[in-house]
Every structure is written in C-alpha cells, then in structure tokens.
C-alpha cells in the first residue's frame, strides 16, 4: 500500500475544508463554468467526481434526491442474507468534502434546455453551462401490478428488504416465480444471477421449494453458457427456465403472473417490470431512441435532441449494456469531453469503455462477464471488440473473492 | 494551489497539535476540533484503565475525551458524538509517555459482523462497559512493529443501541486491517503517524513538508510533476483551443487509463486485493501485450486486454509512466504473488 494514502487522510480532509471555507480567492476573478449533474448513481457520481478530479477550474453541482445510495450491485446477496444493505450503502460526503462538489439532496422537476436552467422540487432554479443527466431507469406499468406487494427489487433499498423478508417467510415446498422483461433492461445477467442465488438459499432453507423463471426473451440474455449449466446441472430440479413467456398482467392479491404461455401462481412473486430511461429524460424531451432511451453522441454523450445536455448510464441509448461498471466508464468519457468542449476543443476521437460483471452462482462461487467497447468512426457508434467479450468457463470460489474486490474497487472509484 | 497549501498546512498543524496533546489527566471532555452546535448527539460511555478516548468520524472530525481518574482501576468516560456519522474508536493509555503509550483501536462485534465503524442515534447511550486496555508495552496483545499500537483491533460486543456500520471501501482504513491509517506507522520508525512529526521519514518535518497530495493521485506535490492533475506538467499549463483559458486539455492517455481505475483503483491505487498500477509503469505495456495475445480466455483481464490496440496500450502505459516517473514504490501487489491476474 502506498504510504501516502494512509497518512494523508486527515491532512487531506483538513485541506479540503479550508478550500471550502475560503472559496478560491485566487481565482475569484475568473468566470468558472458550472456543470450540473442530475442523479448520484454509478454514472452521475463518477461524472461529478472526475470533472473535479481533472479540473479545479469548474464548479460542479450534484443533485440527487436521496442522501444515501443503495447499490444494486451485490444487492442480490442481501436476498440470501450474505450481505446487509448497510454494506452497499454510500453517501456523497467524500465527493463534497474532498472534491469540492456541491451536493443538493432534492428532486429535479424539470429542465429548460433553451434557457439552460433546471428547477428543483423545493422551488429553486439553477443555471448550467453543461448538464449531465443520469437518472437510471423508471419502471413501466404492468396491469394489476402493485410493486409495494410484489417487489421488483430492481432498485436496491426497501424493495430489496421486502423481497428478502418474503423469501424468509416462504413455506417449504413453496414456489418462487420471477419475470424478466424483454431486453434492453438494467443489468443483462442480473435476473439469472438472482434466480441462482435464490435457488441456493431455498435449497438449504426451504426444502422442496422451486424457482420458475418466466423470461420474455427467447433465450438467456447474458452468460448463456454459465447460466444454462447452472439451471440444468447445479440447480437441476430446483430451477425451471421458461423462455418466451411475455408478462401480460399480474394478480397482486393472488400472486399470479398472467403470461403469453399461461398463468403462474407463486408463494413469492418477483416481477421485474419493463423499463425505460428515468422520468426526467422523458419530460425533458430526450427519449428519442424508440421513445424509451436518450440518443447521444458517444464521443461526448451529448444528447442528439438538445445541445449542452449529456446523458450517461442506464438512460442512454447507445446499445452499451445498462450496467454500473460501464456507467462509470461512460461518465469518464463524458467528463473528459465536457472539459474539452468548455475549452472549444473537440472530444477525444477514440474513446473506449469497458464492462465487467461478476455474478454469484452459489453462496461461495461466482462467474464473470466482460466486454470492451470502442468507438467506430464509420457508424458513429460504440461497438464491442469481439475478442474482448466473453464469460468465465466455470463458476469458482476464486471468482467469488474477486467479485468482492471488484465491487469494492468500483464503489471506491465512484463514491470515494 | 500554492496559497491554499500553506493555509491548509496551518490548519492541519492546529488539528494535529490539539489532537496529539493528550492533556493532563483531568476529567474534562474536550473536542479536538471546533464542534458545530448540534442537538442530535448521543453519548458513548464506559470505563477504562487508560485515559484518552478518541473517535475519528465521517464528518471529518476527531472527537476525544479523557476518562475520570476516580481512584479506582476503572475510570469512567463519556464522549458525545453526533448522530448520523460513522465513527471509529481508539483508546489510549499513558498517552503522554511516548515510550509507554499503548494505542488500542476498538472494533465492535455483533453476531458474525465486526467493524471498526459504528454509529448511534441521538439521545441513546452506547454503553461499552469496561474495556480492558493494556497499560504497558509488555502487556500488549500484539505489537510486532513496536509502534505502541495493537496490531489488531480489540473486539467488544456491540451494545444494542449502536449500529455496526460495515463499510466496503473505508477511506480511513484503506488496507482494511482494522487500524485506521492515521495510526499506521508508514516509515517504520516505531512512531505511529499520528504522533510522528515526519510520517514519511523523508527528513522534512510534516509541518513544513510540502508533499501534500492536492490531486489525490498518491504522489505528494513535491515529487508530482503535475500536482493539479490536469494532464499537463506543472508550469506548462498551455491551454489548447481558445475557450476558457483556465481549463487544460490533455491527450487521450488520461481518459484511456482512467478506464482501468474501476478495478485497479483511482489513479491505479488499489483499495482491494486487485493489483494496483501505480508504480508499475514499466510493466503495464508488456503485461497487457502478453495478455492480449494469450490464448487463455478464462481470465477477465486477458479478455479486457484484447479490447485495446497496441497504440492504446502504449498510451495507457505512458500515462502511468508520466505520473509515477517510473518509480516502483507506489505499486500495490497486496496479494504478494506479484501478479493478480493469473
Ligand atoms: C440486482 C442487480 C444487480 C446488478 N449487478 C450489476 C453488476 O454486477 N455489474 C454492473 O456493472 N451493474 C450491475 N447492475 C446494474 C447497475 O446497478 C445499474 O446499471 C446502475 O446502477 C446504473 O447507474 P445509473 O447511474 O445510470 O443509475 P442509478 O444507479 O439508478 O442512479 C440514478 C440516480 O438518480 C437519481 N434520480 C433520478 N431521477 C432524479 C431526479 N429527477 N432528481 C434527482 N435525482 C434523481 C436516483 O435517485 C438515483 O440515485 C445491477 C443491477 C441490479 C438491479
């Protein structure tokens, strides 16, 4: 371990507080560009951090409705009691104190792209030179679905706790049924990972219980080899995988999923609804990809609909996966581009992003999935570099340990 | 950055001086940094054979108090802490005697969960009971580096009123050994950083040592050729283009290299068992090339390496080479096998 990071902690924070107490007297005469970031998830928090890490000449305001952020990553491990929510909860203190980011806990009601202002629920209006919007996903309506009783747990927090409690209360020989929406949705391997983790929990805690996966897709969307092996071998007799089962409606009282392939009744029903970009993307008029996602130029993540607004993370519509690791990667491309654009220089012409994902398969083993995306100048899109994309050949205990290290590192690169 | 540095060091000085002083055995409660008036505090109470109790909290303050010398072997103490912040407790005996001072980091245990960070709610006491601190170096549980700091934190059962906060990436304990960084002994001179006037052993006292790391890249400003992290060497801040002259535009190496940080840590300083890249400048290019052309596909980094062209790999290596001047002191290969990727 580098000796500096150990010993500098107190000194660093005291310096940071001085910087806050005497706000940059030296530079007071210079007009400082103001960048506002909406959303403090993996995308927004990283963008805010790196704007300031790379430049002390810009002011950055991060607006996030919640004071604490519950990571979806590793949240499936709360369901089988391997982790508690507190371990994957982060706040914005370090971003505020060490990086000098102004953090406002409020909801953004609207964005005025013409006048470059945003309005908060508390009535304040803020101006921006550049705006980054990273609101994640919103869930689309499913007839009859009441997510307060039939949890999706696809945003970590109270929903995660609710699903965990329902599983704990499930009878022996009970039926757990989950539904997966048509791609694209947040975290391609996530639902299959969840099925495995829950099957493992039920196997030891609820003898005779089963897992049914109702997938709207024609086949496993991510890590096909890993998950088909897990369903057919590791959880043979416990997991039933049903492709092409499109959810039509839900009976939230009886816990029944009505699908294109018939009705499925459950003791615990987990409906992951179809998703689209976060609400503010729609109200701002940025959802120009299939009416669901925000079209952007992947060199800068600037919206193709409105100038000076950038969209990163799950809400963007570039075809890159909706995942936290790559959201962090997109955020860096966006922050770097904004600093260049503020200087009248073009964005870096050949950005690369990467995705890395570890999936727990049992309580002690995990697999991984990875891919690198490079900018393709001919089509103006991010394209996967074919050789770079692949999954682990087996789930191992070593991968499980690396999963925790990977998550630890990603959390720190985003929030600390 | 220069004016800020000197002001900062002055404040650091006062913080460290008050915090290190230890006081003189009285029974008074002192808070080492000015406290903002707050009504939402809770009390940590208990008794110890030592005198000084310190709490390092996520509001960036250090709270401390001394126990009351009441003639018995168990000295009661009360330390008021704000609600909603995560604190780490350290208890000290003989705090004024450098050769006999015993520093005991405390860890809370509940069921199978243990953590050095905890928090509480306003008005609800966290009573730790009697904490069996050691009073002399000889009696210490373990002190292999003879710095007067217990090698491992001392576990006490968490009172029900305390929340045991597990923290994934603890910025106060970056190597996650339960000893907060400020009580590590970085230069191995048997004096923990908190009591060491020259933590890095470079011969320049900390108070005048200008190696503060303004850009958090792990290199002190003295040895950092780019201490504002703008990708351009210090004193060479020629902006590109005609926009805001205060924003500097670097080449693509910075952006490409930053895509390694998700796993290898911000600026390549790892906070986990994954290999750090800082200080590995010379090896990055050759290792990535090797992985890129390897036929073993059951390794996540071998896959990743295939995503980068040779010139991109060169740019990434050059970024780390520039930042770390090819020195190899900053690397982190904490699994000790010299290679975390096979
Ligand atoms: C079970 C599960 C497992 C996963 N595992 C992985 C994994 O292993 N690897 C991986 O890479 N990814 C994983 N993911 C995906 C990852 O969590 C998401 O892709 C990631 O969180 C997206 O980041 P984001 O910043 O775009 O959105 P979010 O993380 O959702 O953040 C958006 C933030 O914006 C705030 N917000 C929204 N609108 C407003 C507004 N109007 N005003 C103020 N604030 C607002 C929200 O409160 C929220 O905090 C997983 C997801 C799930 C559900």
UniProtKB/TrEMBL annotation, chain A:
- The coiled-coil segments of this chain are none
The UniProt GO MF terms for this protein read: flavin adenine dinucleotide binding; oxidoreductase activity
Kindly name one Pfam family recorded for this protein: FCSD_central
Q: Which residues form the Flavocytochrome c sulphide dehydrogenase flavin-binding domain?
A: 350-415
UniProt keyword annotation of Flavoprotein present:
yes
Q: Which sequence ranges are marked TM in the entry?
A: none
Q: Name the keywords, alphabetized.
A: FAD, Flavoprotein
Record carries keyword Flavoprotein: yes
Q: Where is the Sulfide dehydrogenase [flavocytochrome c] flavoprotein chain central domain?
A: 160-273
Q: Where is the FAD/NAD(P)-binding domain?
A: 34-146
- PANTHER family attached here? FAD-DEPENDENT PYRIDINE NUCLEOTIDE-DISULPHIDE OXIDOREDUCTASE (PTHR43755:SF1), PTHR43755
What name is this protein filed under? FAD-dependent oxidoreductase
TrEMBL record, chain B:
Q: What is this protein called?
A: C-type cytochrome
Which residues are in the Cytochrome c domain? 247-324
Sequence segments annotated as region (Disordered): 175-249, 323-342
Question: What Gene Ontology molecular function terms does this protein carry?
Answer: electron transfer activity; heme binding; metal ion binding
Domain of life of the organism in this record?
A: Bacteria
Query: Organism source for this protein?
Result: Thiothrix unzii
- Signal peptide residues are 1-21
Acidic residues bias locations: 197-212, 220-235
UniProt entry keywords in alphabetical sequence: Heme, Iron, Metal-binding, Signal
């Amino acid at each position: 371990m580098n000796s500096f990071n150990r010993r500098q902690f107190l000194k660093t924070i005291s310096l940071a507080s001085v910087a806050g107490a005497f706000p940059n007297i030296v530079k007071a005469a210079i007009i400082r560009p103001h960048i506002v970031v909406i959303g403090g998830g993996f995308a927004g928090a990283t963008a805010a951090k790196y704007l300031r890490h790379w430049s002390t000449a810009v002011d950055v305001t991060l607006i996030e409705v919640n004071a604490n952020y519950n990571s979806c990553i590793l949240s499936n491990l709360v369901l089988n009691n391997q982790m508690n929510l507190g371990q994957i909860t982060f706040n914005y203190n370090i971003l505020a104190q060490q990086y000098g980011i102004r953090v406002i806990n409020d909801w953004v009601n609207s964005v005025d792209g013409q006048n470059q202002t945003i309005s908060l629920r508390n009535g304040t209006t803020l101006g921006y030179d550049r705006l980054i919007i990273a609101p994640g996903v919103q869930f689309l309506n499913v007839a009859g679905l009441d997510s307060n009783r039939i949890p999706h747990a696809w945003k970590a927090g109270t929903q995660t706790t609710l699903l965990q409690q329902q599983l704990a209360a499930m009878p022996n020989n009970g039926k757990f049924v989950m539904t997966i929406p048509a791609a694209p949705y947040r975290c391609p391997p996530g639902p299959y990972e969840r099925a495995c983790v829950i099957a493992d929990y039920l196997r030891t805690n609820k003898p005779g219980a089963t897992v049914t996966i109702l997938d709207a897709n024609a086949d496993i969307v991510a890590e096909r080899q890993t998950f088909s092996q897990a369903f057919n071998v590791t959880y043979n007799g416990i997991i039933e995988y049903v492709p092409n089962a499109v959810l039509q409606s839900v009976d939230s009282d009886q816990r029944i999923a009505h699908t294109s392939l018939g009705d499925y009744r459950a003791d615990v029903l987990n409906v992951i609804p179809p998703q689209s970009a976060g609400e503010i993307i729609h109200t701002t008029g940025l959802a120009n990809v299939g009416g669901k996602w925000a079209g952007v130029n992947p060199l800068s993540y600037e919206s193709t609909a409105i100038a000076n607004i950038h969209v990163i993370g799950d809400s963007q519509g570039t075809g890159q996966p909706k995942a936290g690791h790559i959201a962090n990667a997109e955020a860096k491309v966006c922050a770097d581009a904004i600093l260049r654009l503020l200087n009248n220089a073009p964005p870096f012409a050949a950005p690369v992003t990467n995705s890395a994902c570890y999936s727990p398969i049992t309580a002690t083993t995990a697999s991984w999935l990875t891919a690198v995306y490079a900018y393709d100048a001919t089509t103006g899109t991010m394209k996967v570099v074919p050789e770079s994309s692949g999954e682990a050949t087996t789930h191992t205990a070593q991968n499980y340990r690396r999963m925790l290290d990977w998550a630890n590192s990603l959390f720190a690169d985003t929030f600390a | 950055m220069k004016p800020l540095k000197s002001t900062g060091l002055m404040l650091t000085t006062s913080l460290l001086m008050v915090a290190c002083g230890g006081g003189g055995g009285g029974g008074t409660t002192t808070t080492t940094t000015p406290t903002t008036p707050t009504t939402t505090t809770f009390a940590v109470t208990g008794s110890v054979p030592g005198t000084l109790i310190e709490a390092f909290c996520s509001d960036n303050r250090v709270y401390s108090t001394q126990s009351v010398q009441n003639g018995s072997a168990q000295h009661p103490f009360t330390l008021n802490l704000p609600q909603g912040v995560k604190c780490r407790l350290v208890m000290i005996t003989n705090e004024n005697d450098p050769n006999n001072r015993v520093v005991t980091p405390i860890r809370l245990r509940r069921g199978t969960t243990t953590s050095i960070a905890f928090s509480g709610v306003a008005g609800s006491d966290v009573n730790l009971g009697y904490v069996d601190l050691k009073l002399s170096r000889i009696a210490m549980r373990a002190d292999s580096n003879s710095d007067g700091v217990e090698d491992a934190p001392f576990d006490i059962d968490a009172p029900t009123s305390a929340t045991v906060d597990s923290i994934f990436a603890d910025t106060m304990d970056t190597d996650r050994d339960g000893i907060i960084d400020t009580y590590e002994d970085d230069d191995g001179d048997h004096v923990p950083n908190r009591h060491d006037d020259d933590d890095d052993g470079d011969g320049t006292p900390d108070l005048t040592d200008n190696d503060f790391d303004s850009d958090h890249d792990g290199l002190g400003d003295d040895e950092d050729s780019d201490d504002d992290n703008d990708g351009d060497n210090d004193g060479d801040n020629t902006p590109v283009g005609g926009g805001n002259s205060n924003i500097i535009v670097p080449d693509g190496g910075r952006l490409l290299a930053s895509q390694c940080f998700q796993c290898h840590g911000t600026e390549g300083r790892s906070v986990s068992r994954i290999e750090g890249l800082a200080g590995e400048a010379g090896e990055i290019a050759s290792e990535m090339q090797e992985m890129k052309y390897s036929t073993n596909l059951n390794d996540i980094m071998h896959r990743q390496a295939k995503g980068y062209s040779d010139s991109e790999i060169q740019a990434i290596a050059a970024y780390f080479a520039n930042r770390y001047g090819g020195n190899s002191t900053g690397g982190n290969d904490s699994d000790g096998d010299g290679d975390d990727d096979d």
